[in-house]
Amino acid sequence: MTERRCILSGDRAAPEHLVRLALAPDGAVMPDVRAKAPGRGAWIGVPRAALEKALGNGKLKAALARAFKTGEIVIPADLGGLVESALERQAMERLGLEARASNLITGSEKIDVAARRGQVSMLLHAADAAPDGRRKLDQAWRVGEEAEGQELAGMVLPVGREPLSQALGRENVVHIAVTNPGAAERIGALLSRWQSYAGCANSAAEERSPEARVRAGTADMSIGHDD
């Protein structure tokens, strides 16, 4: 796909690694995480902290004015939070879709069995999952992947069990195993962008090999480019 340029950093990346901003009819700048809103767009590929700093010092407003080629723009004071909420919502919706397609399983016992059989492509943990529970399932996954002694571990999400339970329409979702490789790629791309923007990517994931990161849904986040 054609690359885009981040209006703040100037770096370039594929659109799926970036967040598109679009103008609402009233001139307000809003996140367009699906990149489907009509008209010109402006792309950002920096973490939330950098976006909010640029908003505070006026750099973002100037960059958006150049990108949209208009002086009539309104930047919400909580734009950073709006972007993060949109990314979270998109990721949760994808998890719900994959759950309805029977591409993932929940429940520690079921996940443990599937992981040891080598049937897990991605392992996710709620932010409030007990450390011991995470360790046990991570170890089961490494056994199934014949990766004992390596850094392979599930991704700890920025949300707890309540949002996950709501997204999947199930009770007390603490751990999620994705059993379909294609679903793991789709979920991984959205989680990577969300976590990178939020500035909370797993440090353990960053130390693994590129192949392991893809399997865990934590492919590297690059910075990006505009319309």
What is the fold's blueprint, element by element?
Elements: E1 4-5, E2 12-13, E3 19-23, E4 29-32, E5 41-44, H1 48-57, H2 59-68, H3 79-100, E6 104-106, H4 108-116, E7 122-125, H5 131-144, E8 155-156, H6 161-168, E9 175-178, H7 181-198, H8 203-207, H9 210-215
Parallel strand pairs: 7-8
Antiparallel strand pairs: 1-2, 3-4, 3-5, 6-9, 7-9
Helix pairs in contact: 1-3, 3-6, 3-7, 4-5
Structure description:
This protein starts with a strand and ends in a 12-residue tail after the last helix. By secondary structure, the protein is an alpha+beta fold. The protein has a four-stranded mixed sheet. Helices cover 45% and strands 13% of the residues. It is elongated, with a radius of gyration of 19 Å. The chain has two domains: 4-80, Hypothetical Cytosolic Protein, Chain: A, CATH 3.30.1230.10; 81-215, 60s Ribosomal Protein L30, Chain: A, CATH 3.30.1330.30. Mean pLDDT is 88; it is low at 203-227.
